[in-house]
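User: Please run a holo structure prediction.
Assistant: Happy to. Please share the sequence and the ligand.
User: Here you go; the ligand is zinc ion.
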Amino acid sequence: MRFHLQLVAETTDGHGEPRTVASFERSDALSIDTLGLSLDEAKSMLAAVQLVVTDTQAHVEASRQRACPCCGNARQLTDRRTIKVRTLFGKMSVPNPRYRRCECEFPGLAAPLVSILPERVTPELLELEAKWASLMAYGVTVKLLRDVLPIDIATNAQTVRNDVLGVAKRLESELGPEKFFFASGCQGDLDAMPLPDPPITVGIDGGYIRDRTDRPNNFEVIVGKSVPEEGTVRRFGFVSCFQMPSVLQLQTTFGTFA
Ligand SMILES: [Zn+2]
């Protein structure tokens, strides 16, 4: 038997023709390894659907933007270019037609899609890259992304690193300027404040420990030592997540040791 996946774009201009975006075959004899879709087939379908959807969206937006924003007349098409946008489902060549500006605008060429899509990576892809790269190495993140999604073949560890650093810079900029001095008031108010405690040096490290009773099970332990300038040294340990053999339990345990 043969299956065809067809997609119909329904826009304000009406229904488009059904487009076959993917096809696959199956033997009439059912077996467990041919039941349903394979991962490769699913990835190919996602990429094919993404191509049709992004192409349709860009064409509709480009034709809408062709009208002069001042008088509404259709502007002259000078050339058809594309811009590359990385998505969760592949790197898309998004149509980017350029129009000659109308007489009532300032002279030159207009490329509306460039203004509408100033970034070349979708937020969902950035979010997934940042989330996974916070848990594992950049190279492993790329491998995992490739395993489950039809991401761009040229994506590598450096690509993910650059994307994650970009996300980090954006988050950092949203925090605003760093505050170095938190006390406020006149000198009299500052003089009336209690003296701060002596400095404390804190060292923290962590690692994974194998469960003694359930060998394949690991849990993370974070330990540390605080060394005040005066007084006794204290040690502490922290287990943020522990998976029981049969039931997933999330628990937080914090202990201090002399
Ligand atoms: Zn005009």
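The longest strand covers residues 76-87.
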